[in-house]
Design goal:
Blueprint: H1 2-18, H2 35-41, H3 43-55, H4 62-96, H5 104-144, H6 164-210
Length: 215
């Protein structure tokens, strides 16, 4: 599907730009996101998500869900505008410079601006994807309310087989646990990328002022 292909593109580009500088040496090897790297990078989030999901289930109440949805919606609107401005700045920067007759300093400045734009845009797009995913998942605790705060550890099968009610309840609780874990993972990754974005922006602005951009 086209949507799946585009999402994969964003994830790959975000990973690539999070793991390289704006200007690299000629023998630099571009980092590529693989399934193994993806799993390894999420191991700590998975453990943390499991702990919070089981022992701090009150964290997922409907009040928090409503607050998070509102906050993330504001973030999506704000950062969509910022992304448009960054891209427009890059286009204007490209049009102002005649690259065919440009000296090395101008070419280097253009490359830095281009690479920073790509870095900022793709990492921000992944953050936006995470924000949208979290909003969709947070609709579940809003609908289930107290049912979403069930204590998974107290579940047990009743005697008798087959007990379809117990089996259905087991898979229902398993789905709730999976949703909680996924929410924790996505929220931590969202804030991680948010700080990464701010770090990129701060380092780039500092580098521009000092004429030494190397983020």
């Amino acid at each position: 599907m086209r949507i799946k292909k585009n999402i994969k593109l964003i994830l790959n580009e975000s990973y690539r730009w999070r793991n390289r500088k704006l200007i690299e040496s000629k023998n630099f090897k571009e980092p590529n996101l693989t399934f193994i790297k993806f799993l390894l990078s999420n191991v700590y989030y998975l453990v943390l998500g499991l702990i919070i999901s089981i022992f701090f289930r009150g964290f997922f109440n409907s009040n928090f869900a409503g607050f998070a949805i509102t906050s993330l919606s504001i973030f999506i609107g704000l950062f969509t505008t910022v992304l448009i401005l960054i891209f427009d700045k890059y286009l204007n920067h490209s049009k102002r410079n005649n690259l065919e007759d440009a000296n090395p300093a101008i070419l280097l400045d253009y490359k830095r601006t281009k690479n920073f734009s790509r870095k900022f845009v793709f990492v921000s797009l992944e953050a936006l994807l995470i924000a949208v995913s979290v909003i969709i998942l947070l609709l579940i605790p809003l609908m289930l309310k107290e049912g979403f705060l069930i204590d998974i550890l107290k579940f047990k099968f009743v005697r008798g087989w087959p007990d379809f009610l117990s089996i259905g309840l087991f898979f229902s609780n398993l789905l709730i646990l999976f949703t909680r874990i996924l929410l924790v993972i996505l929220l931590f990754k969202f804030f991680k990328y948010l700080f990464i974005i701010f770090g990129f922006l701060g380092a780039y602005i500092k580098g521009v002022f000092e004429d030494n951009v190397n983020v």
